Amino acid sequence: RELCDSIAHNHVLNELKASGHKLEPESVSAFSNMLKHNKALKRLAIGDSTFGDEGLTLLAPGLAENAGLEAIELDYKGITSEGVSTLREVFLKNKVLRSISLSRNSIKDEGLSKLSSIFGEAGVNLERVDLSSIEVGDVGMKALGSAL
Q1: In its UniProt record, which GO terms are filed under biological process (predicted)?
Q2: Residue 106: closest CA among 137, 72, 143, 71
Q3: Which terminal CB of the chain, N or C, has fewer other CB atoms within 10 Å?
Q4: What is the residue range of 102's domain?
């Protein structure tokens, strides 16, 4: 919590990589609150494989409101297609995010189809999406191909 309180009004730090650390729900909520206030942070990577859809749901309000974050790394976080629905809502609200990494999550065809649906939405400015090892097949790739 102290870290998030410090970062909330920090105008220098532009990248925080703290993946591989288990975060309790209160800590994820503190990160979300920090993101509502911090404008300097450009890249963020937090949490471990237990983060999951629950962690993403707690982080989403801060991601949606943040006006500076350009990239979020969510590699190997235990995110499923349910979590992708949360991300979809974030990207519809946040017009600054340009890059997301979702590699090594169990997103599967359903999740990739949900994510693909945002590419045609006005104001969504994703330039880089890492979908390595997300357990996707032909159905998901077809959805992505049609969206692009």
Answers
A1: nucleocytoplasmic transport
A2: 137
A3: C
A4: 2-147
Per the structure, the count of domains in the chain is 1
Give the CATH number of the domain where residue 93 resides. 3.80.10.10
Q: What three-state secondary structure class fits 47?
A: strand
Closest Cα partner for 44 from 72, 19, 63? 72
**Which of the four pLDDT bands, split at 50, 70 and 90, describes residue 33?**
very high
Please answer whether residues 63 and 97 qualify as being in contact, where contact means their C-beta atoms are separated by less than 8 angstroms: yes
Q: Is 138 exposed, middle or buried (0-12, 13-18, 19+ CB in 10 A)?
A: exposed
pTM score:
0.92
Residue 124 pLDDT > 90 = no
